[in-house]
# Entry
Amino acid sequence: MSLAKSKTLSQNKGALKNLQQTLQEAGKLPPSKPQILSYEKILERENNQNPYQNALLYMALAMAKANNVEQKSLLLESFEFLKKARQGEETLSNLALDNAVYIKAARFYHEYFGRSPDQVHPFSLLARPQYIRKTPVPAKPVMICRTSTSITMKLPFYRPITEYKAWRNIGDVALYGKPSGSGVAVSLNNTDYEGTGEKRAPGAVLNVTGLIPNERYVFAAGGYTPEGTCVNGIGETSNEVLTLLPLSLHQLHGYLSEIAFKLGHYQIAKQAAEALCQQFIIKNEFKYSHLDTNINPILAYRLDKDYLSRISMIEGKQLAEAFIILARVSKLVRGEVQRRADHCELQVEKQKVDMKIANFLCLALEISTYLNRPSLTKRVVAELFNHLTPYFTMKTRPQILLQVLLKCHQSLRLVPQELVDANSRRILGCLSYQVVKLGFETSEDQMLRRAMISELPISSRKWRRYAQYVV
# Structure
């Protein structure tokens, strides 16, 4: 009896485990965390609280796993670390805006040459007593910069609220710091690191060294009279500062979308690609009156050229790859609009979804042309041409299709001749044919001529020899 009962119990456990795995693969349950190996624990301890390195670590671990559920769990953890990194950068940006005057003044400080902001107008006004707000304790010190082992802080100016007149004249300010999260506030005894506990002039810039990488620290200042008396004790505690060298979030989101796409986790790839791409697109102001919407989806978004010009070429290439992945996963991960279009009898609903995907590919094509990446341009043109192939057989084709094909044609023509392979030549011939055909239909003479000239031999590009082709 007991043997049959134990056998039934083991079968139920096995069925429950299979059901749980099936639901996790379907996305109905969150994936269970994989078992952490010994070498993985060592890597996690080395990264400590660094969200950038932890995100990269979990991406690498996901590629090393064979189980689909474990891969998804690690990729989701990596995405959460990227969210934490972005939140940390936004917090630091807000602090920098709030203390922009003090950060700007720190540029004029150099202890060796005896330079200080007090000698430069208008930053010299910060040191005047009438512009220093009276407070019971010193204000928070301001972080100027950080590395993996050091933090540079700017000491505050201090006018104490005190009954003793002898204490109202502050001659020096000292910085104190300690690791965050120990449960004890910063005190006057926290002078373990080089640079802490040293008395400097108010408003001076101090460099604290000897810190542990990937660790959070907090700091506070104390004001002293010329006689060395500490006035009102320790000051306000600063915000937490994490000792690290930040990585590019654009690159990391691009890496995550690529890895998730290769491993077959298309929903995660879409989320990572959207998080990257939405920073570089803005809504288009052009209207398209031939559809029942305010704008054609192929023109819905355009690139933010100002923001794009501020990133490196490597980040730009990663951005183009993210647009390609976003276009691919949009076909695989069906959103609410796409599912509604699948069950709709009107073809225009499906065409809107296709035009939205074509919009992503057009943006990737613009980036690849801007970066002068011939191999990337060939890939994007091939992807876009294959996506628009069903529209070539339509009886009535929109004029915007000619614009897109001409853009592909001209971009592919910019590829050096030695890099044009057989597939590219085949696509280029098909593009030329469709552009000429659409040019006749829409009476676009200039575009038609440009396409025909590009197909003629270089040595004989003279219209007087080919008068019969002139429309």
Residues 374-471 form one domain. The two ends are 93 Å apart (CA to CA).
